[in-house]
Specification:
By secondary structure, this protein is an alpha+beta fold. The chain has a single domain (3-116), classed as PAS domain (Beta-Lactamase). It has five helices and five strands, in the order αββαααβββα. The chain has a five-stranded antiparallel β-sheet with strand order 2-1-5-4-3. Strand 4 and strand 5 form a beta hairpin. The N and C termini lie far apart (58 Å).
Length: 127
């Protein structure tokens, strides 16, 4: 196994152990990779999602209205709270762009299940 293959295998192993959903897509929203948590949550196989647009995975036909990928500049990512129509669950979606020669080429999206802290603060105040 050469060094690049070893690095990719190791990175995939680490990302697959994360319970949050990790998606990687290109600047046209075409999925190129997803971790095991995402595959399980959406009930899909990796080979069936590659080449699909990320928003279709979410149950939409067009780019999400609140998607910040097209408005990102430089290395600054963005974070948006969004409901995933396909699951009906609320996630915090953090987008991290990768640029090459000044052009966005890849985006890593990190989706973390949103926790409604308002109920927690109410129960803490009532104790």
């Amino acid at each position: 196994m050469n060094k690049d293959d070893y690095t990719e295998t190791l990175l995939n192993m680490v990302l697959d152990e994360i319970d949050d959903i990790i998606l990687i897509h290109d600047s046209e929203y075409t999925l190129v990779w997803m971790n095991r948590a995402g595959l399980k949550k959406f009930g899909v196989r990796l080979e069936d999602t590659l080449g699909q647009r990320c928003y279709t995975l979410f149950g939409k036909n067009v780019v999400c209205e609140d998607c910040n990928v097209s408005t990102m500049h430089g290395n600054a990512g963005g974070s948006t709270k969004r409901i995933i129509p396909r699951t009906g669950e609320v996630y915090m979606c953090r987008s991290l762009p990768l640029y090459r020669d000044g052009k966005m080429v890849m985006v890593v999206q990190h989706l973390t299940k949103h926790k409604d802290l308002s109920n927690e603060s109410i129960s803490i105040r009532n104790q």
